[in-house]
Amino acid sequence: MLAYITVICFVITFLSSNIVSADKGSVELSEYTFDKIVSKFDAALVKFDVAFPFGDKHDAFVALAQEAKELDELLFAEVGIKDYGERENEILGLKYGATKESFPVVKLFLKGKNEPISFDETKGFTSEELRRFVRDNSGIYLSLPGCIRDLDTLAIKFQNSAKEEREKILKETENVVEKLDTQDAATGKIYKTIMQKVLEKGDEFIGTEINRINKLLTGKISNEKKKELASRINILQSFSFSSSNKKDEL
């Protein structure tokens, strides 16, 4: 017990003294602290980069780290690598395939797994794609753009329940939607409508609707309509996510 408390105190002390920025939500790791810290978390999203990172990719990583900073089981960390002087963390970077030519490199480390999972940025190095990457590979739920956290929780609960319980959750959802302000009310009604359609048509409605909207997105529509449809897909994925890899919620 004493040993466990000692480890926890070490982690807390380390995180407190190594926060990159009070509102960034990520910590700096080195070759000396990397294994000790990463191993303490269910999941750790680590960016290997230059010692003083900047640019859109860095900003995307920081934005998601800030958004998810309340999740105790998920660590966001950065390893700054120097190719000059004492070449700090260079060997650690090479161990995970991070070189000057490939920066930034993002890896997801999962407790119990020997090898990390590499982030594929072919679809874009954005906060949204990083969020999907974490969700899909860790089971830790991160709300997507256009979603409402409380209603995401109900969507997950709905999809994992029997029909009788789903009807009760629909009522609960309606009560939540009624209390939303004008800005969120329209979004809330989408959750309610999806639940009604699932009760009427079955779970296959989720996949069918996602496919239908994806086809619409390939057509000639305004940017405003594209944004609206993309948000609807994100809400639908709140339902589909829960049926396979739910772990925690944000």
TrEMBL record:
Signal peptide: 1-22
Domain Endoplasmic reticulum resident protein 29 C-terminal: 146-239
Keyword field: Endoplasmic reticulum, Signal
Record domain ERp29 N-terminal: where: 24-145
Top-level lineage group: Eukaryota
A GO CC term assigned to this protein in UniProt: endoplasmic reticulum lumen
BP term (GO), one: protein secretion
This protein's name: Endoplasmic reticulum resident protein 29
Gene source species: Bicyclus anynana (Squinting bush brown butterfly)
Upper classification of the organism: Eukaryota, Metazoa, Ecdysozoa, Arthropoda, Hexapoda
Gene from which this protein is expressed: LOC112051560
